Amino acid sequence: MCRYFKAQITGNSFLNSHFKLLSITASPEIIIPKPGQFYMLQVGNSYDPLLKRPFSIYSHEDNVLKFLYRIRGKGTLSLSQLKAGDVIRVIGPIGNSYPGPEGDFIAVAGGIGIASLFPLLERYKNRAYLFYGARNRDELVMLDEAGAVSKEIFIATDDGSNGRKGLLTEMVEEFLDSYKDNNELPVYTCGPAPMMRELSRIIEGRGIKCYASLEEHMACGVGACLGCIVKTASGQKRVCKEGPVFDIEEIVW
Prior knowledge:
Layout (H helix, E strand, L loop, with lengths): L3 E11 L4 E7 L12 E4 L11 E4 L2 E3 L2 E7 L3 H7 L6 E8 L10 E6 L3 H10 L4 E7 L8 H6 L3 E6 L6 E2 L2 H11 L8 E4 L2 H11 L6 E4 L15 E4 L2 E4 L6 E3 L6
Parallel strand pairs: 8-9, 8-12, 9-10, 10-11, 12-13
Antiparallel strand pairs: 1-2, 1-7, 2-6, 3-4, 3-7, 5-6, 13-16, 14-15
């Protein structure tokens, strides 16, 4: 089995004005991805942009891989213009994965971070207390799908257009404070760095295991370019090789 392969695009549809869901079909011999891993995708049919871009795997079934992404730069804009039938080069799955929970768990997703966490929710159905936040209701993508595989879902938006108005981390802190048993649940998170930094503060001293998936710019995805270095308590580490999932206590925010 090889991590380098070509795949045909079978779908690249808008979910709303900002987000799209990309589907690609590869040969049956691809390596089965684990929750938390990612892929490097060719984002255009030319050499501009030249470099592949990293995307969390959203779902996998048979030999169909799906990726949830937001159009916010040259690379994703180019990717959004690809059509069914186009063939792209792919590297993956790359990186480590979320450690599997033994029982119920807490998932904290900020915006597009739901893409990384969804495979975990799907594999361990109806076991997650999902906290899902974004700036507004339009950025809560795949909300129904995520809720269907979660034990309970808590929503927050900055403008109050869906769920509670305010910071998602405030809801997590209240949840942990409400019952002692909640402090025994492991936490999994992916989203904006400020959100995960605040989450790190909240769980400090509670004895909770928390696994954070980091999103960093990277050029190669195989550890050679050193473009995705992050600071940890044990020194600098590469998100593409030693990550993307880290114990949140190791990260130097």
